[in-house]
């Protein structure tokens, strides 16, 4: 597994305001979107492209364009939705699929409650969006789900991660031949006994959309 932690003062600055409990939902949503666009720049470093012939007003030249099939972005509902606009800004021609996953707050077990994805993901580059890599349970399950549909090129974009979650993911993927890349805003200190990232930012879904 290839873990990339963004190291940029603008990302650290925006994360600080995102974490602050005084930040209201509209500001939180805007910051999450801006952060994802910055992380997407790194996450798409290996996006598939092909040569493309054009004429400038001065001369013919060869550029590049995104290859087909186009990448697919998969936000994990509900909090991953808050990252979608930021990602689509950088990859406007990507398709978007949805995966609804929920964590039982007592057992921390994850279950899938919704999916809107193509049946066959063979040959597709897949970008999973989930703001919090906490226990890693959601991401492990999402990766299983996507590989069962044929995905072999998966990048997860997360705003915050706990070391325990990264370790769990690494252990689960140790015997896999599928190269998974994880792009993170930062790695926090730890998980608490409720499975929250410390210092973290609280419940990302609630901060984005309110308590439902
Ligand atoms: N999910 C969240 O929204 N926050 C955490 O800290 C952990 C999981």
Oligomer: single chain
- Helix share, percent: 25-40%
Structural domain count: 1
Return the CATH class.
Answer: Alpha Beta
Q: Radius of gyration, rounded?
A: 18 Å
Bound compounds, please? uracil
Which structural category fits the helices and strands? alpha/beta
What is the string of helix and strand elements? EHHEEEHEEEEEHEHEEEH
Please summarize the sheet with the most strands. 9 strands, mixed
Low-confidence stretches: none
Q: How far is the N terminus from the C terminus?
A: 35 Å
Strand percentage? 25-35%
**Tally of separate helices:** 6
Characteristic key phrases:
212 residues; alpha/beta; Rossmann fold; nine-stranded mixed sheet; two-stranded antiparallel sheet; 13 strands
Architecture overview:
GO terms for molecular function: GTP binding; magnesium ion binding; uracil phosphoribosyltransferase activity. Catalyzes the conversion of uracil and 5-phospho-alpha-D-ribose 1-diphosphate (PRPP) to UMP and diphosphate. With 212 residues, this protein is α/β, with parallel strands linked by helices. It has one domain (2-49, 66-209): Rossmann fold, CATH 3.40.50.2020. The chain is built from six helices and 13 strands. The strands form three sheets. Strands 1, 4, 5, 6, 7, 8, 9, 10 and 11 form a nine-stranded mixed sheet that branches. Strands 2-3 form a two-stranded antiparallel sheet. A two-stranded antiparallel ribbon has the order 12-13. Strand 9 (132-133), helix 4 and strand 10 (153-161) form a beta-alpha-beta unit. The protein is globular, with a radius of gyration of 18 Å. The model has no long low-confidence stretch (mean pLDDT 95). The chain binds uracil. Residues 79, 132, 134, 195-197, 200, 203-205 line the site of uracil. Uracil is lined by residues 79, 132, 134, 195-197, 200, 203-205.
